[in-house]
Amino acid sequence: MLAELDTIQSDALAAISSVQDEAALEEARVGFLGKKGRLSVAGAGMRDVPKEEKKEVGQKLNEVRTAITTALEEKSAELIAARDAAAFASIDPTLPSRPLPAGGLHPLTYVLGEAVKVLRRMGFALAEGPEIETEWHCFDALNTPEDHPARNESDTFYFENGKLLRTHTSSVQIRTMEKVVPPVRIIAPGSAFRRDEIDATHLSAFHQLEGLYVDKGVTLADLKGTLEFFFREIFGSKTEVRFRPHFFPFTEPSFEVDLKLQATGKADKWIEIAGCGMVDPNVFLSVNDARGDAAYSPDEVTGFAFGMGLDRLAMIMYGIPDLRLLIENDVRFLQQFR
After folding, report:
1. What does the pLDDT read at residue 265?
2. Which residues pair with 259 in a beta bridge?
3. Which of 47-51, 123-127, 320-324 has the highest mean pLDDT?
4. Of 103, 124, 200, 312, which residue is the least packed, with the fewest Cβ within 10 Å?
5. What DSSP character marks residue 35?
6. Whole-number Å distance between alpha carbons of 214 and 124
7. pLDDT mean over 156-185
8. Sheet-wide strand order for 241-248
9. CB–CB of 326/298 below 8 Å?
10. What's the longest Cα–Cα distance across the chain?
11. Predicted confidence (pLDDT) at residue 221 exceeds the cutoff of 90
């Protein structure tokens, strides 16, 4: 048995040494180590080896298997190295590489980054919430009456279980107040969804940035100062901002915010950019009911909230005439923003 194992090892090493390609190497492996290979057949004969010789023969069997396996691995590495060398033989490594085109941020990503950067300098923290919301977080807690048009199925995407795709990121304000006691100063960027007809100025899925500040003694002057500073940081120090009285269920008083656009060769034009106002006391009372305490007592704290479309900010910043350009992924359009 020992002499047979020596012969198998000698034959295997000679066969492996002489192979010229990986297919022949695999054939040699199967011929010696496969289920029906010579070493495997010899190993099956261990049952016929006398008991006093089994230890010696077993050690020899393992040594032969190790020697053959090592030779196979070394030969495989040698063949791979030769193949790689042949593949690179015709390549001149001194040639300069081909230039790769530089990528760039999507205009919405850039605008979001700039907006967050400005607001974080002002002390606002980032907050987030789910895009699939409950009616309470999206409407009821925000003082939106049951007959409000926004709650109609023609305006909002509802699921069979009664939940909905949030129509604004104001729901994040409610979820934050449920968890955190005043003072609260957060911004909530994210996607919102409405059943709007898609055209040059409307999308059914769009991007919002909302803010909330609640503390003792927060005033309308704080709100105006915050937004004026924000828009002048984004669009330039000479940006003109105006506030027009408006109505929103969740703020009182409420305002719409306009910016004056100045285009060369055209008359100046005011464009609506955001909505804002002082948080309605009913919103604080709803939050208190959910929390089970009086952390947001309207007698103790006040606050302001604002919201704007990031898509609209991008349109103004880059002079984009059609909102649909932001979602069509046309490379010719996006290459302008590298």
Report:
1. 57
2. 241, 271
3. 123-127
4. 103
5. T
6. 11
7. 93
8. 125-126, 184-193, 205-215, 302-309, 269-279, 251-261, 241-248
9. no
10. 108
11. yes
